[in-house]
Amino acid sequence: MNKWLELFVGLILVVGAIVVAFYSQGWGVWNFWSAAGTVFKGGLFWGILGIGALFILLGISDLKE
């Protein structure tokens, strides 16, 4: 596939998803904006938890030396 076509299709998909999420705020069960916020909050939680576990493992590794 042409690199410019790939960039264009990707841009259309990203902008389309943002537009659908914005206009779906009043759709009740199909509120994609709320679902995206929930996924973001979950990812943020697991990311912070993972970084904390990494620091604990690095600290334990430094205590051995």
Q: Can you describe this structure?
A:
With 65 residues, this protein is an all-alpha fold. The chain is 83% helix and 0% strand. It is built from two helices and no strands. The longest helix has 33 residues, at 32-64. The model has no long low-confidence stretch (mean pLDDT 87).
Work out the strand percent.
under 5%
Overall geometry comes to: flat
Number of helices: 2
SSE series: HH
For the secondary structure, the number of strands is 0
Helix content: over 70%
Distance between the termini: 52 Å
**SS class:** mainly alpha
Largest sheet: none
**Rg from C-alpha positions?**
20 Å
- Summarize model confidence as the mean pLDDT: 87
Low-pLDDT runs of 5+ residues are: none
Summarize the helices and strands and which ones pair or pack:
Layout: H1 3-23, H2 32-64
Main traits of this protein?
65 residues; mainly alpha; 83% helix
What does this entry show, briefly?
By secondary structure, this protein is mainly alpha-helical. It contains two helices and no strands.
